[in-house]
Amino acid sequence: MTAISHAAPQDAALPKVKVDVLPLLLVPLLALLMLPLVGSFPTWVTLTVAGLAMGMMVFMMASGLTLIFGLMDVLNFGHGAFVSVGAFTATLALLPMKSWVEADSVLMNLSVLGLAILLAMLVTGILGWAFERIIIRPVYGLHLKQILITMGGMIVAEQLIHVIWGAEQIPLQLPTTFRGAFIFGDAALEKYRLIAVGVGLTVFVTMFLVLNRTKVGLLIRAGVENGEMVEALGYRIRRLFVGVFMAGSALAGLGGVMWGLYKETLTAAIGGEITVLVFIVIIIGGLGSVGGCFIGAMLVALVANYAGFLAPKVALVSDILLMVMVLLWRPQGLYPVAKR
Amino acid sequence: MIRTLLSGDLPRSRLLSAMLLAVFFGLALAPFLVPGARSLNVAATICVFVVLVASYDLLLGYTGIVSFAHTMFYGIGAYGVGLALHGMGPSWWAIFVGTAGALALSLVLALVIGLFSLRVRAIFYAMITLAVAAAFAVVASQLSDLTGGEDGRTFKVPELLQPSYRLLDAEILGRAIDGKLITYYLVFFSALALFLLMLRIVNSPFGRVLQAIRENDFRAEALGYRTVIYRTLANCLGALIATLAGVLMALWLRYVGPKTMLSFEVMTDILLIVVIGGMGTIYGAVIGSALFILVQNYLQVLMAQASASLSGVPLLANLFHPDRWLLWLGVLFVLSVYFFPTGIVGRLRSKALARRSP
Hints:
The complex is a heterodimer. By secondary structure, chain A is mainly alpha-helical. Chain A has one domain: Orthogonal Bundle (ABC transporter involved in vitamin B12 uptake, BtuC). Chain A contains 14 helices and four strands. In chain A, α2 (41-72) packs antiparallel against α12 (290-310) and α3 (79-94) crosses α10. Chain B is mostly helical. Chain B has one domain (2-356): ABC transporter involved in vitamin B12 uptake, BtuC, CATH 1.10.3470.
C-alpha cells in the first residue's frame, strides 16, 4: 500500500445542519387559525399587522439581551434601562427639530427619525460599554450577583433619567406623514406600524446576515457554543463580549425610540415595563437563540393582539399562558441552545 | 432563655447586639416614646417589613433563589384580608377567612411556580417570577369589581382595633389606650413571633440543608438531599410568611391598593433592604428595614434642604431633589453588592470575629 488513504475526500460536503421547522410554522399557523375566530378578514389583517409591528419592536429590544446571555452567560436585568435611555435620548433630536417633525414631507420626517435613532443608538451603545465595564465586568460567572447588580443599575439609571429629564411625562409627537393609516378595502393599516415592521425586518435580516455570513458572526456563534474553545484558538473573546454588549444595548435603544414613538408619551418606567415582556419572549425563544427570540416576539405580540380583540380579560395574562404552553412543549424554549 | 428564643443564633457582635436592642426597644415602646400618628406609622411599617424582608432572606440569603414574586404573596395576604373585611363586614371571622384563603392561594401559587421553574437554573426562576408577578399586579388592578382597581379598597376592622375604641378610660404615660395602640401591638407581637420562627427555621437542620444548597447545590444533591424539594419548601415557607406580613400591613393601614401592596417598587425596596442589611443573616432584615424606612421617611427632609441650598445649580439641585432618595440608595445598593456582599450585619460580625481571634 503506497497511497495513504484519506479519511474523506477534501471536497466532501459537511453534514447537513438539521433545520428545526416546527417552531417556524407556529406563527403562520397561529395567524391562520385565528382568521375564522376573528370572523372578518379586514379586522384580521389590521390585528395581524398590529401584532407584527409590536412583535418587531419587542424583537429589537429582546435580541440584544438574548445574544448577550448566550455569549456571556450574563442576564442583564437592567436591559430595560437602555430602552428608556434610548427613548429619552430621541427627544433630544425630536423636540428641538420640531419643524422637521411637523413638516409635511416624507423625506424630512424620515431624516429626523433617522437622526433620532442614530443618536439614541450611539448614546445607548456608549452607555452599554460603560455598563459592561463598571457594573458587569466584576461579576462574570456569578449569577446571583449579576441579577442583583444589574437590578441596582436599573434603579440608578431610572433615577438618573428623572434627574436629567425631570419627573414629568414627556409627550412625543409622531412625524406628520407617519400618522394616520392606509386603507385597503375595509382594512386600515396604520402607517407607523408598517414602518416599525420595516425597521424590525431590516434589523432581523442584518443580524441574520452578520451572524451567518461574516467572520465576526461565526466567532459569535462559536462563542455561544463554546467560549473556551474560541479563546484557545487565539481569538480575544473579551473584545467580542464588549462589542456584542454595545450592539445589544444599541438595539435596545433603537427599540426604545420606536416604542416611545408608538406610545407617544415617555415615562422613565417605560423600560422596566417592557422588560417583563422581553423576558417572556427570550424564555419562549430559548435563552441565547436569536431565531427563537424572533419567533417568540411575533408569537407573544400576535397572541396579545388577538386576545385583546377576542377576550380582553384573557389578554391580561395571555403572554404568561403562552409561555407556560411553550415550556410544557419544549422546556428549554423553542430553540434550545445546547450548552445552557 | 434568650439563647433558646434566638435558636442559638446570637448576634455575635457587641455593636450589632446594641443596634438590635435599640431597634427592639424602640419598636416595643414606640407609642410611648414618640408622639404622633406619623411616627407610629413608621414603627408599624418597620415591623411589617422586618417580617417581609426576613422571609425574602430565607429565599435569597439562605437558599440562593432570586424571586421577584415576593410582593405578589405580600399582596395576596393584604388583599385576602382586605377584601374579606370589605365583603363580610368587620368581624374576626372575616379576618380568619381572609387570612386562611390568602395562605391557601399563596401556597398553591408558590408550589406551582416552584415545581414549574425551580428545577432549572436560578436565572430562569428570577425571570419567571418577574413575569408572573407583573401579570398578577395587572390582573389585580383590572378586576376592579372585586379589588377596587387602582383606587384599592378601604375597609373597617373589628371594633377592638378601631382607632375610636377605648380599652381604658385612663391614659398611661400620657397615651390613650385606644384601638390604634392595640393594633400596633398586634402587629408588633405577630412580627416578633414570625421573626423568631424564621430564626428557628434557618437554624434547624432544614436550614442547614438550604445553606448547603446555596453554597453548592450539586454537592447537596450528591449527599442525598432532593434539592428541588428543599428549594420548593423554602419557596413555600417564604411565600406563606410574606402573606402573613401582608395581612398585618392591611390590618394596620385599613386599606389595600395595588400601589402599596403589589407594585414593583415594593419589590425593589425589599431587595435593597435585604442586601444592605445583610443577606443570609435574618438579623439583616431588622437592621436594614429600620434603617431604610427611617431614611425613606426622614432623608427626604435633609435632601430638601440640600436641594434648596443648591437651587442655583441646575443639575445638582435635581440630584438632591427629595424625590431622588432612591437614587442614592440605589448607588449604595450597587456598592454594597460589590464591597460588602454580606451587608451591615455580616460586616459587623466579621469585624467582631477578627477582634476575638487576633
